[in-house]
Amino acid sequence: MALDLNQAALLFELEEVAEREVNRHLAVSKDWHPHDYVPWSKGRDFAALGGVDWDPEQSQLSDVAKAALVTNLLTEDNLPSYHNRIAGDLSPDGAWGTWVGRWTAEEARHSAVMRDYLVVTRGVDPVALECDRMTHMTHGFQPLARFPHGTGAAFLHTVAYVSFQELATRISHRNTGQMCGDPIAEAIMHRLSLDENLHMIFYRNICGAALDVDPDQAMEAIANVVTSFQMPGAGMPNFRRNGVLMAKYGVYDLRQHLEDVLMPVIRKWHIFDRADFSGRGEAARDRLAAYLEDLELVQVPRFEEHRDRSLARDQARGIDRMRRPQTASAV
Asked: Is 110 annotated as contributing to ligand binding?
């Protein structure tokens, strides 16, 4: 059993796996074009070109759909931060460099198609959206800054994090599309969720291979990531408000995080069936198990109790955040 492999050694040990996974990804992924998904015929000029600026009545999206689309779009906008971290932890050469380039190019489509859809259909205020983009991208996001960088641990934390995060994003995208009440928006978000699923598989398989190469260190990274997980949208303007709406109405909530994101990946890695950990790896696995138990028995029920009370209060007040506007100006 290899122990405490550093960054270069880990990359070397896993390069054959990375090459296999890149080839698999290229064989199954399908090219698509953002412009094909945008209803351009619904567009019109804004005031700067002699048209009409945005007005809230022009949007045909519910409050929940707006919150989810903006959150997902601003998350995708921050691609430079994610690329910087992943490119820094992987090699620019060989299969690693090929993957980083391909992954970045595929992810860049996501913000393009979502923004074009929202602007053309006047789903949200484009000025507020642009201001939020500037703020979020200026600050960036470093979800792994608390962990050691420049060591093997940094690489393992990165691939462990994106194994979960890509799956979480897939679920958020898919559910967002279903909340929009628009088949075009649903088709867009479905397309993005397919990309995110393939990205998740790459990272999940790399991290799974890392568990075989360096079980203890990989297990520590997984436990650290799971017990302090943040979505990449954390820190964006209005993230708390929008995140609450999304959780409250089932776009992405704590039960989904546990049952649809954490547990499927953990089971795929056979975390609780492995017998190749030393005391160090066992301690990390025990820490993970305790966290998952608390999530299942305490945190999820508490969240659902609070959510149900809040929904009941809204219903009593006649508030329906899922209702689409009954009338809207033609676009």
From this structure: yes
Give the fold, CATH level 3, of 7-42+58-317. Ribonucleotide Reductase, subunit A (1.10.620)
Handedness of CA 195, 199, 200, 201 (dihedral sign): positive
Res 144 pLDDT > 70: no
Q: How does 268-277 read in b/e, with b if 16+ C-beta sit within 10 Å? A: ebebeeeeeb
**Domain assignments of the chain as residue spans, ordered by start:** 7-42+58-317
282 annotated to a ligand binding site: no
What is the rounded radius of gyration, in angstroms, for the C-alpha atoms of the chain? 21
Helices and strands (H and E) in the chain: how many: 13, 0
Q: Is 196 marked as a binding-site residue?
A: yes
Whether 107 has a binding-site annotation, put simply, is yes
225: buried, middle or exposed (CB in 10 Å: 19+, 13-18, 0-12)?
A: buried
Separation of alpha carbons 221 and 147, rounded Å? 9
The percentage of the chain sitting over the pLDDT mark of 90, rounded to a whole number, equals: 81
199 marked ligand binding residue: yes
